Amino acid sequence: MNRRGAKPVMRNLVAVVRSEWFWLVGIATCGIFYLAGDAIFATLANPISLGVVFLWLFAVMLASAVSVVRHADRLAERLGEPYGTLILTLSVTFIEVMSISAVMLHGANNPTLVRDTLLAVVMIILNGMVGLSLLVGAWRHREQAYNLQGANAYLSAIVPLAGLSLILPTFTTTTEGPTLSGPQQVFVVFVTIGLYVVFLAMQTGRHRGYFTLGGEDNGHEAALAERPSIPWHAIMLVAYMAPVVFLAEQLAHPIDYLIETLRAPTAIGGVIMAVLVATPEAISAVRAAAANHLQRSVNIFLGSVLSTIGLTVPSMILVSHLTGRPILLGVEGPDLVLLIMTLAVSVITFASGRTNIIQGAVHLILFAAFLLRIFQG
Question: Which residues pair with 144 in a beta bridge?
Fold first, then answer.
């Protein structure tokens, strides 16, 4: 290769390193904890060491997850809706399943972890993410429009799946506690997966138009001229997911220490997992709303809740059976009230095809109530 040909290659290589340097940080962190993890975790009794290890692992995992979303967003721009958002939600759901499994299988059994994580994800997305997106969007654009048929389709699947997975187990009597019997679990697994598959067939098939909004510029045309290509973004999406999967098991050590040794609220573990998986999508959703692309934002947060319930619940039930670690699914007490209120308010919010600032404020109030519930009982 002559010098003229070498210069563009070097420029492209430098550009790649500048944009993807954090992948090297993630790989280096994986290497450090693979080689010296036992020695590092032996220092968790020191509060400073506990804080440093937790923040280090959490920050690397969160930044890697944000990079996953970044490449999923590029794919979304190039592929258009709803395929791009589908890639995003499935990627984050995979991270969620692997993270919960790693923490659940480490240390003493925490049967409420799955339930706490699912509830936290629903609350963070349907209240925190929705509230912030609607508030920011309405503040900048007064009112914003979305496809009412698409939102109704999402909620028509989310409400029954949430009811079957998180509410029904609280009231069943075949088994003790907020659990499901074997046949009931089989039913929930088949129903959640089946309904999600039917929804995907509708979303990507004959009713694809429900999830787009005429006149809303998603940047698709500009993305077609963008480089690198679709395969590059797909490769980097998978590359960033690899450190997250490995480090999830390492993060289980400080989380278990917080709950089992320092007696932190057991729900903290679920909230940490939920923040990890929901934050990257929240950033994407709020950005879309601020840019007056509310349809994209709606697809992100409602699609995320649907995939969380439709895929995470059956996955965790399967993991529970394979590992012999029971899980509690039913939401009880004040959390049950907050969940029902959240579902009801969400149905009201997405009932007109347009949003305004008061709707965002109401969802944020419910999110604040959820956070207060964790620490004040």
Answer: 355
> How many Å apart are CA 113 and CA 132, to the nearest integer?
26
Higher pLDDT, 265 or 132: 132
Q: Give the model confidence (pLDDT) of 301-329 as tens digits.
A: 898 899 888 888 898 899 888 888 888 88
What does CATH list as the number for 3-376?
Answer: 1.20.1420.30
Task: Select from 303, 300, 335, 373 the least CA-distant residue to 134.
Answer: 300
Q: Which amino acid is at 284?
A: S
Q: Which residue has the tokens 């959703």?
A: 285
Confirm if 166 and 273 have CB atoms less than 8 A apart.
no
Count Cα atoms within 13 angstroms, Cβ side, for 75. 25
At residue 237's C-alpha, the angle toward residues 253 and 24, to 5°, is: 60
Q: What is the pLDDT of residues 145-159, one digit of tens each?
A: 999 999 999 999 999
**Longest alpha-carbon distance in the chain:** 77
Residue extents of the structural domains in the chain: 3-376
Which one-letter DSSP state was computed for residue 82? T
Q: Specify whether the CB–CB gap between 97 and 311 falls below 8 A.
A: yes
